[in-house]
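Now for today's protein.

===
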Amino acid sequence: MSTNITRLFKNRKQANEAAAELKRQGFGERSIAVVAGRDPNAAEGTPEPSEASVAAALEEAGLSAKSAQAHAERVLKGAVAVTVRAPFGTAAAAQAAFAKYNGVDLGISDVAAASKTNVSTPFSSGFGWPVLSHHPAPFSALLNWPLLSEERTPKAKLLDDPTPFSNRMGWSVLSEDAAPFSKRWGWRLLCDRATPLSDRFDWKVLSDDATPLSNRFGWEVLSNKPPKAQLSPDATPFSKSLGMRVLSDE
């Protein structure tokens, strides 16, 4: 949550110095607004700003209607308003920057209105920081990497290899049995269903897709080839690999 902090200054010079101090304190340019009345350097015949137009400019900067009206009255009398959208935890820094240039507080605190900027960049919007890039794939563009897919909803291939890592690394699979421990120790299977909890509590299965993440994000599956790995002929592969003594040869 952000708070709009607003102060009034005697002239444009003080107001601009306060705005520059806010930027030095880390506030983004887009989170700061300077609102003044008639420009003394304006050409002759330039119409005077109305109270409504000044209040509208302050509301656009994030002030509530009540606060904008109160500050607009002072602005039309010669003051210059500076307001900053201060994200949570930064209000003290903003107040210190204003105090350095003798800003006048009317005692009205405003919770900042919802940002009108792109919600896809919430941190940049909240702090008024410029977005580094609007490119949908900045790292790929920067490093000249090919994109995995340019489709919004690409069609990924299903992974039909039950041991993709073993096949990819050339490792032998320990067992092709679906329940090797139960079979090894003679234990009864608790359930031979693919979705036991969903079946037990009558829950809807989230997905019956074998590779939901790959299909969801358009990733290619590691392999769609039948496994070529062979069973390990060693009855105690881990013990042999780690040099541990076998407890029993039975």
About this structure: The beta strands are 2-9, 32-35, 80-87, 110-111.
